[in-house]
Write a structure and sequence with these properties.
With 134 residues, the chain is an alpha+beta fold. The protein contains five helices and five strands; from the N terminus they run αααββββαβα. A three-stranded antiparallel beta sheet has the order 1-2-3. It has a two-stranded antiparallel ribbon with strand order 4-5. Strand 2 and strand 3 form a beta hairpin. Helix 2 runs parallel beside helix 4. It is elongated and about 85 Å long. The termini are far apart. The relative contact order is 0.13.
């Protein structure tokens, strides 16, 4: 004896509603570019939560570690504690006086370890000032 499936509810026909939605979605186009404050926010989040925890940054710090809790500055060759050293980008992350796209910023921030050096705070400040004001 064949089963009678007529008593089960069928879904309503949504194909016309779905087609309207798809057409509206396609008509919207690309979203507008980020505003300056939005881009600044994204860059700060990338620095704080991406760069500071990046594997490449950690590898550079480990390579410059002389002994437990002591790091050698690549510039002055003195030894410093972990809170007195910073990882320097040999190529400036932010182009002085120029507009940086978010993609360029990310490419420069997350560069290979050959483009990074561990410097003491004083040497890092001197290098950074030289990059920004030269």
């Amino acid at each position: 004896m064949p089963r009678d499936f007529s008593k089960f509810k069928t879904e309503p026909d949504v194909s016309s509603d779905l087609n309207v939605f798809i057409k509206e979605r396609a008509a919207i186009g690309e979203p507008p570019p980020l505003s300056k404050p939005q881009e600044a926010f994204v860059k700060s989040v990338l620095k704080r939560h991406g760069w500071l925890k990046s594997k490449t940054r950690q590898e550079v710090l480990v390579a410059s570690r002389v002994s437990r809790g002591l790091y050698k500055c690549a510039s002055c060759a003195e030894l410093f504690g972990p809170s007195d050293v910073e990882v320097d980008h040999k190529c400036s992350v932010v182009q002085p006086g120029g507009e940086n796209s978010l993609l360029d910023f990310m490419r420069r921030l997350f560069c290979p370890k050959e483009y990074l050096a561990v410097l003491c705070r004083r040497c890092h400040r001197v290098c950074t000032n030289h990059d920004h004001y030269s």
